[in-house]
Sequence to fold (323 residues):
Amino acid sequence: MSTQDWKFTAKDIAAKPNLFLSGHRACAGCGPATVLRLIMKATRGPTIVTQATGCMEIVGSIYPYTSWALPWIHTAFENAAANASGIEAALKIMRKKGKIKDEHIDVIALAGDGGTCDIGLQALSGAVERGHDFLFVLYDNEGYMNTGIQRSSSTPVGAATTTSPAGTIIPGKLEKKKPITEIMLAHGLEYVATATPYYWKDLLIKVRKGLEVEGPAFLHVFAPCPRGWRSEPCKTMEYSKLSVESCVFPLWEAVHGNRQLSAPSKVIALAPQKKKFLKDYLEGQGRFRHLFTPQNRPILDEIQQSIDVRWQKLLQQCQLSQL
Ligand SMILES: Cc1ncc(C[n+]2csc(CCOP(=O)(O)OP(=O)(O)O)c2C)c(N)n1
Ligand code: SF4
Ligand SMILES: [Mg+2]
Fold:
């Protein structure tokens, strides 16, 4: 099926073989595992995946088993993008030497928020600056989950983790979430977008668009983690949806830096009464439980205010105004 014919209907998706197979060891309700399965449904042909150490690498590749039904290379925590650069450079030279004929081979680099926003940022910055042709997918579960739920620079303000424990000294993490998409946009990438698995079609279309770009593309996928968020496994998709409806994680894409809201967020921009409150999203997540005490009320208000300010800024960036 050619790229143009692929419309990402539920029927198309069911018909396409899984490339990230079941039988892996992810927790029940794992958001990132659903993300990987969906992403692999959007590939357009031969694809090589390279993946940094993290939950999703561990659960799918415990020796002697693998969940990957395509060429897949594990790399260290810090260098998924460097590995992708090497793979892409190798493909180029193999084509030049006639070892690969006409067929195009896509390269996808996968990493968690730790492997992207923290230790992997230098490799990512270098790879996109050099202009390698690959899609980098960040699955953001807002913490170092694989090693015991430590905070990352992508953990939001107020979240309790094992290295930002809520108690009498601090009310969870004090620092703001790193604006990774802004950092990637500043590199001048042709395609940067946000996505989350509840809006699966939006996610698949963005993966395909990222693959079609000739050069680096970056996709930030918000992926609830019931283990680290202390949430019910059955609520993963609900939190994915609420993150968008509360404007905690708006969906947009930027082509050549021109940012546009994606449909699920546009609905809220056009009908602001549909916007959910932060507390609707936080409730039920054990990592934020301490914020619902009377003494921590000002922190909740502050977080709500910063979300509202960011949403207004995004509307301006998308040349929309309301509220
Ligand atoms: C240089 C180095 N430091 C630390 C580690 C230990 N380590 C492995 S995975 C990981 C955290 C991964 O976090 P993230 O990228 O967010 O993925 P997640 O586990 O949350 O899916 C850490 C600290 C390592 N493998 N290498
Ligand atoms: S800890 Fe979180 S990200 Fe890791 S496998 Fe479990 S649910 Fe998934
Ligand atoms: Mg993580």
Q: What stands out?
A: The first helix runs from residue 10 to 15.
